[in-house]
Amino acid sequence: MVKAYLRYQFDKSFGVVAGVRCGSEVLEKGEELRRRYGNRVNLAVSPAVETVLVWNLRSGSEVARFVNDGAREAGEVTSLSAYGDGTRVAAGYADGSIRTWSIVESKLEGIFNGHVTAVTSLAWANGGSNPEGETLFASGSADGEVVLWDPAAEKGRFRIHGAHSNEITALRVIAGHIITASKDGLLKIYEISTQSCVQTVVGHPGEVWSMDVGNDLLVTGSIDQDIRVWKLVDATDRNGIKLTPLGSFEREGSSRCICLRFNKAGTMLLGHGTEKSIQLFHVRNETDAKKHRRRRRARREAKSASNDQEDQPAGDLELEAVDFFHHARSVKTDYKVRSASFLENQQNLRIMVHMHHNLLEVLEIGLGHGGTLKSVMLVDKPGDRGDIRSLTMTSDDSALLSLSSAKTLKVWNPVTGVCLRTIETVGYGLCCKLIAAEKFVVAGFKAGQVQIFDFSSGVEVCLAETAHNGSVWGIDVPSSDDGFVTCGSDKKVKFWSLAEDSNGKFSLVPKRILELNEDVLCMRITNDSKYVLVSLLDSTVRAFYLDSLKPFLTFYGHKLPVLSLDVSSDGTMLATGSADKSVKLWGLDFGDCRKSLRAHDGSVMTVVFQPDTHMLFSGSRDGTLKYWDADKFELITEMTGQRSEGRETRPSIRSI
Fold it and tell me: Which of these, 181, 288, 608, 621, has the minimum number of CB atoms within 10 Å of its CB?
């Protein structure tokens, strides 16, 4: 007889506002976007794992979501570039494919396959930037290749093999030329008509991480704090363009410069590294730059005169980078910055900042002495700012709860992926559980607190500041009463009841305490409330009778501590996942090890049985989620879609 298994396939991902694999961009408002959204609304696109999201920066709401089955298989979004009028966006993926999406019609326009490694940079030639006046875009990849694409014909025009010897970090398509920057430390100019390199620029101390062009100035950022400047001039001898160096100027910070961006008029420049700050610079036109040069020359002559050096001519000073760029202001942010962009058509200077903790923020910046800094919009409610450490679902699958390290407990609709409520908590969350017939939710924290909320309203019911003298690593609920059990790094397992006084106020009352010799890392109570099983720091698992707390069994065999455990619904089988990368299956009658599975390439962070079966899920730091038959000790399938380490797994009635 053939045994049938349930088939699981990737459904959706949610909770991501802006990933960190690539930066976000503000869309320029063409006529079509103005008619649809008005002049006062700015839109932005951001990467969200394998999805491209479009955000309304006025309301903070999601406008569109671009993803399909092919995009999920392509991997994470590794680069983004918006067309000039904001009506379409090109997205590069980890498998080397490129997809163009229509923002107006919210549909896929084309798929382009031409790279064998991740697409690391994209740039549109916005009509007239190439000799034929067609709309093209160029892409660069991690293996140093450049491809010019024709989206109308849905094919590539040509490929430049070995354009660079390392990853291409930025490129621009200007006046029939492609300008590329790479981690090999070089800038190159390729002529589109001849498909040949017409200029190679050296002089960077290491990798070139960022580049942008404003008017006739090109700026680059490298591994140091200097921003290097070149002037784009016509090369009449070959009917093209060439770069002439203007020197460099310093920015604040010592890390590599990962983003440089001009505004549309080319009068402002922003730049930042991997720190929590952004620098803004005024860009002078050539007339004002010459005035600044004359002032520099006057100061130089005055200095020479004061040093009795009248006989030495001051000499004529040429235009340099410091003549064009003037530091306007530094902006401090709460988190590390991934990218930043100017918002156009605004009365005041505004920038959108994409930060590492899964959020977008619009800042209004006042320049000059006494200029103010104001946060206009913060897009963070649709996602968590920190790692999600615990998940739990209601019994009818109507709501999903996530507890994060960013002091938030969020309630989600698992069908639509919409965040229904955000609850502020007291600290770094580690575990949560629904109790009292799902009337309350209890959460445990790294500093030892236990906090209880009313599930329907999100209001705090009670808080135990010193529930444990250390991290609260686990919470479970026995089926026999309305209390709950916690375990922590203080070597204790505590049994609690929730008491209500005459005034309607709740308090936590400890009923029993089980003291152990080692830190308790996780805990589980069997469905029949007969045993409580705890994982200890000495790599053992111990089982106790729940009523008397007397020892029942000890499970030996793991070389490193057990990070997760679960008991099957019938109470006959125990599964443990350990930091030694293995999953072990045990019998709960005699404590025998039935099978040891070399399950993952990283620490096993979560194991959970499918309800009413011996089917087992395991998740690991290696980013994989596997489905096992615990009776036959066989791997059924490995589920794709997980892009980072799996910390928590929760099966539901219809999904996992």
Answer: 288
